[in-house]
Amino acid sequence: MGVGARRLGLGVWVILGLLALCLAAYGRSLALPLIADDYIQISLARQWGPVAGWLDLLRDPLYRCRATSLVLTFWTERLFGIQPWIFNASSLAIHFVNCLLVFALGLWRPIGWKVSAVAAGVFAVHHSHQEAVIWYAALPELLVFTFVLLSLLCWLAWLERRDGRFYAAAACCFVLALLSKESGVVLVPLLALTAWVERRDWKTVAWSLPMGLAAAVYFLTAYLARDTHLHFKDGTFSLAAPVWQVLARSMMRLLWVSGFLSLAVLAWARAWRWLPLVAGAMVWSLITFLPYSFLLYMPFVPSRHTYLASVGLAFLVAAALMALEERAPRRAYAVAAAVVLVIAHVSYLWTRKHYQYTERAAPTQRLLEFARDYPRDSLHLGCFAYGPEIAEAALEIELGKKVRVTRAAGGGPREREFCFEVAPPAEVAKPSGSP
């Protein structure tokens, strides 16, 4: 068997292994029902997903930055209907594709295929970014990752071959990344850094400036629309946020526990040759965390927003496993460490995290059970955990009922409490704060 055929065979085994790891980690989540904002995602996709709605979508300063996910959601429902497992499976399929893109980073010589294969395996099962995979409403996180990695891979091919078609492809994928999530802007410093590492030539780095200009215009259009931009108005995002505190806390949470154990293994093994990869991994995580560090509603970046940053963690863990393989007297030690890592993360996802997502889905499921045979067109919510807009979207999407929903007086949003009560039509004829 030739070298090329042997490498192709190994590549196929890596791909099958990544598929098995993705299914092992997230297979149970396929059975979850839709959760809260999933209904808003589908409702918005019905409005803006068709070609006829694209012009209105581009006028919206928030959701035009999520256009790819809305179009994908529209076509998913159009082809398969409202089946929760289909939406969950589409998220898992994109996660698998993203794992393949992490593996594809091995084409860059400073990384190599062996390291990228291990990192892709870590990325496939690590729980740090599970919300992006399990919660369908977090679909923009998966898609911005896809287009950022595709653009970076095309950029690396351009750096090696200087073929303008690769540069054009990188630019197109960058535009799609910006249409997926605001965090797509992180691609600009990543392109500049990889160009410098590869060429050590400022003229080559300057080829990232057109992308930088596009990112600046992209941000400026959002900032100028801040008076109507939801995230500038609802306390989600602020340029005055404690960015460095959020960034530091988020890095600490990302590194706990696997990252710190990996650093300890690298120090014990005195694996100095892996320091450039470790440094690159840390820089990747810091850069990709930055756009999310302007939030106000949490002191650290939530799980779904760590999806891009987790690539850095994956390569850090991969470096530790490779160092353990080189330092330990037997390769079995590195294999055993990898098996323990997989079992630990899969077990955590199948038990504690699955229970949490079941709890998050419970309020809407109880509401649907209550309203399924309810004939009237008005409903008062007492202690429903989510807002009336989610209740209305869930009832319309799942039951085909356009029911007007308001909160009962004194009813607060408390988790795991479901106090639905019938309201006379006169009480809800003109609900205050109706979306």
Can you walk through the features of this model?
The protein folds into 2 domains: 10-327, no CATH class; 364-428, no CATH class. Strands 2-1-3 form a 3-stranded mixed sheet, with helices on one face. It is built from 19 helices and 3 strands. The protein is globular. It is mostly helical and 435 residues long. The chain has helices spanning 3-26, 37-48, 54-59, 67-80, 84-104, 113-125, 130-134, 139-161, 164-178, 187-199, 202-205, 209-224, 230-233, 243-255, 258-269, 275-289, 310-327, 332-371, 388-399, and strands at residues 378-381, 404-407, 420-421.
Keywords:
single chain; 435 residues; mainly alpha; 2 domains; three-stranded mixed beta sheet; 19 helices; 3 strands; globular
Order of helices and strands: HHHHHHHHHHHHHHHHHHEHEE
Let me know the average pLDDT. Answer: 89
Number of separate helices: 19
Structural class: mainly alpha
Counting structural domains, the number is 2
Helix content: 55-70%
* Termini gap: 65 Å
Strands of the widest sheet, in order across it, are 2-1-3
Short synopsis of the structure:
The protein has 435 residues and is mainly alpha-helical. It has 19 helices and three strands.
